[in-house]
Amino acid sequence: MRLFLLPLVSVALLGACSNGESTARYLIDPPIGGERVANRLGTAELMDVSLPEYAASDEVAWQTGDGAVRSNTGQLWADNPQRAFTQTLARAISDISGATVIAEPWPLAEPPRRRLQVRVEKALAQADGIYRLSGRYFVADDAAGGANQARSFDISVPLAGDGDPAEIARAQSQAIAWLARQIAALAGPGRVITTTAPPVPRIDDLFSQPLPPLEGS
């Protein structure tokens, strides 16, 4: 009898694990609106945002009082965190400034004027009740005389209530909206580095040029 019950127990456990209603998934969805800023980026390709390992995981992470970063397999992000962060940030910068910021790969025939990189050092709901988003961003302008930006950001959003995953998702969305505004305005501590030489032609640019006419033609 005991051997007969084992398969039944296994099936019951598998059924519980596969129950979609027991898994909560949370979206990154920055609020729309607010004062617009000037278009200072023009066209820019946003490279995949670099996230800490815990923030790139499918599970929503938070910090407990002992300093540990914890998560729960039943509380997940609704999309790949890196993809969602990158796509959402590109859209938010575009919406707030009118710039054409598109996540890589660049889909248009006309190449972008600038390249944008964001390297996140911390993206965490801290034990002190604050969601912290900090790191650096870089704007590269290859044109001779172009202004290259190397700047940092450190954004804090208070967590309401117990800081449950839904509140963490809300705070992260708000932090991304603030980061989008900072990048759109090219604001934050850092420096500007001027491009002093024209860019080296890419090999595909060389082969796209028309061939010279043949002698005697």
Automatic annotation (TrEMBL):
Pfam families: ABC_trans_aux. Residues 26-184 form the ABC-type transport auxiliary lipoprotein component domain. Gene3D superfamilies: ABC-type transport auxiliary lipoprotein component. PROSITE patterns: PROKAR_LIPOPROTEIN. Signal peptide: none annotated. This is ABC-type transport auxiliary lipoprotein component domain-containing protein. It comes from Paracoccus halophilus.
